[in-house]
Design goal:
Blueprint: E1 2-7, H1 14-24, E2 32-37, H2 45-52, E3 57-59, H3 68-81, E4 85-89, H4 91-104, E5 108-112, H5 123-138, E6 141-144, H6 147-155, E7 163-165, H7 182-186, E8 196-201, H8 210-223, E9 227-232, H9 238-247, E10 254-258, H10 263-268, E11 272-275, H11 284-292, E12 296-299, H12 304-307, E13 315-317, H13 322-334, H14 336-353, H15 356-362
Parallel strand pairs: 1-2, 1-4, 2-3, 4-5, 5-6, 6-7, 8-9, 8-11, 9-10, 11-12, 12-13
């Protein structure tokens, strides 16, 4: 079966980073994958990962939703490649890809990765309304990555039969605990070997909530002076986060690494994963930290409570609450036995429920 994935870009991001492990694990005797990308963002580094595993990647330029010549290019491209099914992801791909599939009589499905429902006063709301309407009318199924996302799409008018809940998965062969090698891995970070390293991996947007973790850091450092905070990822909010760290006087303890491809090693070199998001459907970075066996502090929002259970495989805190972040981080950093127990439980949870092979079988 020839399956065409259409996605807005292959830059850094959760939906984008899921594609290589997903497509790597398909049986090529059954599924023949191809990826069509509409835009270039930060050089589209994920495209190189796909090409390395033998998945063809084609750029069909579509600037925005007003680019009707781009839509015609997409139609011509699909006609030429003759897929049996089209799988769309993210805004422009969902709209143009689903319309193209309908026009050409090809069944299509979409994966909903986000919970973003902007205010009606914002222009993005009307773009999303167009997207939801097209998916509701023309997509055969919409795959939602959490029950929280499913409930939101039900409220948007999607029938229960159209929605399929399928949690994201990760490649457990890549993300593994490396406690015995932690000190060697720590040398890959520009930090003291004996420092306490907290880490967050995220696209740097305001909704990821890193500003609240930065505000929590001075109190954590007052108690544990050797604490450092490593931020992996890039995005439009980075400059404001850097300015905030300077204004708080902690810029010598906060390391912005930007986009990195060695996430498994960076996680394994760290002591704790912090995910202070304000809204998230189902964060891939959380799965990765769980697979490495890190103790985790995360916001109790979106789909997070569906995968991380308070006191069992992590600690959950209210969003936008620096004092609770401080309290929970210090709790785990002081209690090594609790941290170890939660980390082991988190790894077990991922092995049982979020192995990428489970997702591939269900797809």
């Amino acid at each position: 079966m020839n399956v065409l994935w259409i996605i807005d870009s292959l830059g850094p991001g959760g939906a984008e980073s899921l594609m290589p492990p997903l497509l790597r694990n398909f049986d090529r005797a059954v599924i023949n994958p191809r990826v069509c990308v509409l835009q270039v963002r930060n050089g589209n580094p994920v495209a190189n990962e796909l090409i390395k595993i033998g998945v063809p990647v084609d750029l069909v330029p579509v600037k925005n939703l007003r680019d009707f010549s781009g839509f015609r290019r997409l139609l011509a491209y699909i006609k030429e490649n003759k897929p049996d099914i089209i799988h769309t992801q993210l805004e422009t791909s969902d709209i143009f890809g689903t319309l193209a599939a309908k026009y050409l009589g090809i069944p299509s499905v979409s994966t909903a990765h986000t919970l973003d429902i902007p205010s009606r006063m914002r222009r993005t709301y009307w773009r999303n309304l167009l997207r939801w309407t097209i998916l509701r009318l023309f997509s055969k199924h919409v795959i939602v990555v959490s029950d929280m996302t499913r409930n939101i799409y039900r409220k948007l008018g999607f029938g229960n039969a159209k929605l399929i809940t399928l949690y994201n998965g990760i490649d457990l062969g890549i993300f593994q605990p490396n406690g015995a090698k932690r000190q060697d891995l720590r040398k890959t970070l520009p930090l003291p070997a004996d420092g306490i390293v907290l880490i967050t991996v995220a696209v740097l947007r305001e909704q990821k909530g890193l500003q609240y973790m930065l505000k929590a850091l001075p109190d954590i450092m007052n108690d544990l002076p050797d604490t450092f905070y490593v931020i992996v990822g890039d995005g439009s909010y980075r400059k404001k986060l850097e300015e905030l760290s300077r204004s708080l006087g902690i810029d010598d303890r906060v390391v912005f690494l930007g986009h990195r491809t060695d996430i498994p090693f960076l996680l394994a070199a760290s002591d704790m994963f912090v995910f202070p998001t304000l809204q998230d459907a189902l964060p891939t970075a959380l799965f990765e930290a769980m697979a490495v066996g890190l103790p985790i502090v995360a916001s109790e929002v979106g789909g997070v409570p569906e995968i991380l259970h308070h006191g069992e495989d992590g600690l959950l805190v209210p969003p936008a609450d620096p004092s609770k972040l401080t309290e929970s981080c210090l709790c785990l950093l002081r209690d090594k036995a609790l941290s170890a127990r939660l980390g082991l439980s988190a790894r077990k949870t991922v092995e049982e429920r979020f192995d990428i092979r489970i997702q591939v079988q269900k797809l």
